Amino acid sequence: MIVYLGIIAIQVACVVHLVKTGRSPLWLTALIFLPMVGAIAYFIVEILPGLQGNRHVRTVRARATAALDPERELRAAREALELTDTAANRVRLGDACAELGRWSEAEAAYREALVKAPDDARTEAKLARAIFEQGHAGEALALLDGLEPPAGQSERDRQGLLRARMLEHAGRNEEALALYADVVTRLPGEEARCRYAALLLAEGWENKARKVLEEVEARAKRLDRQQRAAESEMYRWAADTLAQLRAKVS
């Protein structure tokens, strides 16, 4: 019975799509007299091609690919480097290593890229992060502070978030808080807000931290499941921490 109702639901959905989009009426015959086969054929021929350009579909596909074969991009980057040893391919290798958390390998790749293309500020910023992620905050901060500010606001904010993390790691919490407070007003996603809230809590500013986490909660409600999945751990931490803070005042 459940299977039968499922087939009917798929059939109805395809018919609705057919009517709304003005597809060939010949499909209607197939959907009525060959419900399951017709629906599968309709999805493959008429619906699937339109999904290829959907940003959320691409994101889900990329995550699925990464989960099933996490080293796919790393292999591709190495193959590209074997064919052509360029600075760009060295950076691509570094990025693939960074995505897998292999920071020492990423650092080596970025350094090799900078030998081929010195004074590339973007690569130097990536090198600074690779150094920082290995626990060398002082060296990373010195490198990052020596760079010219990026031209675009988005990239400046991403570097600002990285610098705030470095300052926090170095114990310069007051400077880190000020930087977090600035970048959270512009950066997409919730990493900056969650890191800001965590540092506020560490400094004893529970009321301020709760307000920041309430912003995270409110923003999360406006996202669909796929969008929240991109930062699921952050949202989970924010929800659990906010619940604990609310329990203290109830």
Walk me through this protein's architecture.
The chain contains 15 helices and no strands. It has helices at 2-21, 26-33, 35-51, 55-68, 72-83, 87-99, 103-116, 121-133, 137-145, 153-169, 173-183, 191-202, 206-221, 225-229, 232-249. The longest helix is centred in the first third of the chain and has 20 residues, at 2-21. With 250 residues, it is mostly helical. It is 80% helix and 0% strand.
Summarize the model shown.
The protein is built from 15 helices and no strands. The protein is an all-alpha fold and about 250 residues long.
Q: H/E series, N to C?
A: HHHHHHHHHHHHHHH
Q: List the total number of helices.
A: 15
Proportion of strand residues: under 5%
Largest sheet: none
Distance N to C terminus: 48 Å
Derived from helix and strand composition plus strand pairing, the structural class reads mainly alpha
Based on Cα principal axes, name the global outline: flat
Radius of gyration: 24 Å
Number of strands: 0
Low-confidence spans: none
Chain-averaged pLDDT: 85
Helical content band:
over 70%
